[in-house]
Amino acid sequence: MNETVDLAKLEARHTALENEIDRELHRPLPDQAHITELKREKLRVKEEMALLSGELAVA
Q1: How far is Cα 4 from Cα 27, in angstroms, rounded to an integer?
Q2: How far apart are CA 44 and CA 13, in angstroms?
Q3: What count of other Cβ atoms lies within 10 Å of the Cβ of residue 37?
Q4: DSSP state, 59?
Q5: What number is the average pLDDT over the span 1-18?
Q6: CA 57/CA 59 separation, integer angstroms
Q7: I need a labelling partner for 26 at 20 to 30 A (CA). Which of 2, 10, 32, 36 fits?
Q8: What is the pLDDT of residue 54?
Q9: Is the predicted pLDDT of residue 1 greater than 60, yes or no?
Q10: 34 within 8 A of 24, measured Cβ to Cβ
Q11: Which residues have a Cβ under 8 Å from the Cβ of 38 and sit 6 or more positions away?
């Protein structure tokens, strides 16, 4: 699979996670555990995007 396609999929997933976090935060009783889980996943996706685009060195 093409790196550009992979990066586009990761960017779409990152945006979807942002939207899901925003929806959860604006519920009457937000689930903080779920928000934390979503934020961790969003960070993992962001790191994967950085690796794919060459901005993050593998240690």
Answers
A1: 35
A2: 11
A3: 13
A4: -
A5: 89
A6: 6
A7: 10
A8: 81
A9: no
A10: yes
A11: 17, 20, 21, 24
What is the spatial distance between Cα 13 and Cα 50, in angstroms, rounded to a whole number?
A: 14
Entry pTM: 0.83
For 21-41, write each residue's pLDDT tens digit: 999 999 999 999 999 999 999
Determine the Cα–Cα distance for residues 18 and 40; give it in Å rounded to an integer. Answer: 11
- DSSP H or E stretch at residue 25: helix 3-25
Q: 19 burial class (0-12, 13-18, 19+ CB within 10 angstroms)?
A: exposed
Enter the tokens of residue 50.
């950085």
Give yes or no for a contact between 46 and 14, defined as CB atoms under 8 angstroms apart.
yes
